[in-house]
Write a structure and sequence with these properties.
Blueprint: E1 2-3, E2 6-7, E3 11-16, E4 20-25, E5 30-34, E6 55-56, E7 65-70, E8 80-85, E9 90-95, E10 121-127, H1 129-136, E11 143-148, E12 152-157, E13 163-168, E14 182-187, E15 198-202, E16 205-209, E17 215-220, H2 225-240
Antiparallel strand pairs: 1-2, 3-4, 4-5, 5-6, 7-8, 8-9, 9-10, 11-12, 12-13, 13-14, 15-16, 16-17
RCC repeats: 88-159
InterPro entries: Ran_GTPase-activating, RCC1/BLIP-II, Reg_chr_condens
């Protein structure tokens, strides 16, 4: 099988969401596939490759992907994706209906958002500059982990203290006082803390984990077997990535 010049790609890591997946090869190329690409969550426009088969993600040739993340949601008409490159940049694509991509929102509030190109989705990965600018104000140390829920995003800083949340927040999943219906990227006062090892986001639930995978904080709509199963998968994935202590 030929995939944009790469024959039978071998993945060293696969980010598995509920509706789509992203695979990374040893040389830092990213491929995506899934049930649908209606909201641009696959980040590719190669129409010659069926979206249910791995196709090369649209990125500049100089970009080498080190990490990938796919959203955990049950809505086939939603979904978003994130990748981190070898320079530490956060790129995002997919549904942006609730500002969950963090694109262009540094100059607008939750009600004054203007979507790029007039679309409520982006089918090409773009650097989330507003998130990086926000993190720099907090003595930016890089990104340790990212979690994508149904319509919201969590970013954990490398110093393990700050969690930045954005997107849909009506169920309290962003960890903000007052549960805003939608929010641009901001530091979450409830989810931020100390010694946070990883973050999880499933549907409308957000969780922070300690070094052994135990819950530090949990916010949002979290009481369902589907969410519990998703959090368990997130914990195991964090362990495989070396974010948790494998000996405990």
């Amino acid at each position: 099988m030929e995939n944009n010049g790469v024959k039978n790609p071998i993945f060293v890591y696969v980010a598995e969401g509920t509706q789509h997946s992203i695979g990374i090869t040893a040389n830092g190329a990213a491929f995506s596939w899934g049930r649908s690409t209606s909201m641009g969550q696959l980040g590719r426009d190669n129409t010659d490759m069926p979206f249910k088969r791995p196709g090369r993600v649209n990125l500049p040739n100089s970009v080498r992907v080190t990490k990938a993340f796919a959203s955990n949601n049950s809505d086939p008409e939603s979904g978003h994706s994130a990748i981190i490159d070898d320079k530490g940049n956060l790129w995002m694509a997919g549904c942006d209906r609730w500002q969950q991509l963090g694109l262009g929102s540094s100059n607008s509030g939750s009600t004054g958002y203007t979507w790029q190109g007039g679309k409520q989705w982006q089918d090409r990965f773009q650097i989330s500059q507003s998130v990086e600018e926000l993190m720099k104000k907090d003595n930016y140390s890089g990104i340790r982990d990212v979690a994508l829920g149904g319509d919201h995003t969590l970013v954990l800083s490398s110093n393990r203290r700050f969690v930045y949340a954005y997107g849909k927040g009506g169920d309290g999943q962003l960890g903000f006082v007052g549960k805003p219906f939608v929010s641009a990227p901001k530091r979450s006062p409830i989810l931020s803390g100390k010694n946070i090892a990883a973050v999880c986001a499933v549907e409308s639930c957000s969780v922070t984990l300690d070094d052994v995978g135990a819950t530090i904080a949990k916010v949002g709509k979290c009481r369902s077997s589907k969410v519990s199963e998703g959090i368990s998968r997130c914990v195991e994935n964090a362990r495989r990535q070396g974010l948790l202590d494998s000996n405990k």
